[in-house]
Task: inverse folding
């Protein structure tokens, strides 16, 4: 019997990433429940969030692990259902659903570039969203 176990390269990092992804999904669920005027569930249309909303969440819910909160916000704001709504001058909202700034031209252009990447990935490989008839 060997004295130590060797893991394949990246195995430990993969476990950390999977664990962080689980925490992020859990935090996203909490955000949707606690702040339903700002955060929406998967697949729902997501309005642009206030710049710095992470700080607002930390103040309102200091018990949330900061690393999981950052991962949850990154996951929430990186998908096509969020990027689709980042159009120039679109209203951003705070935790209370009230207006909290606008999307800039630069932010809108960055979102459009991300949407082009999403569309290209769908064209190359297809996706569950495409199979359900959802627009990307």
Result:
């Amino acid at each position: 019997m060997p004295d130590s176990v060797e893991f394949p390269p990246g195995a430990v990092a993969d476990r950390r990433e999977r664990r962080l992804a689980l925490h992020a999904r859990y935090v996203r669920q909490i955000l949707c429940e606690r702040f339903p005027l700002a955060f929406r569930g998967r697949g729902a249309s997501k309005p642009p969030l206030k710049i710095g909303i992470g700080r607002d969440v930390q103040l309102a819910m200091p018990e949330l692990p900061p690393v999981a909160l950052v991962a949850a916000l990154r996951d929430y704001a990186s998908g096509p259902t969020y990027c689709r709504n980042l159009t120039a001058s679109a209203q951003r909202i705070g935790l209370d659903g009230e207006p909290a700034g606008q999307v800039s031209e630069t932010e809108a252009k960055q979102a459009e570039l991300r949407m082009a990447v999403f569309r290209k990935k769908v064209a190359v490989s297809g996706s569950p969203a495409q199979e359900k008839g959802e627009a990307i």
In short: The helical segments are 11-34, 53-60, 66-78, 80-83, 105-125, 128-131. The CA atoms of residues 49 and 92 lie 5 Å apart.
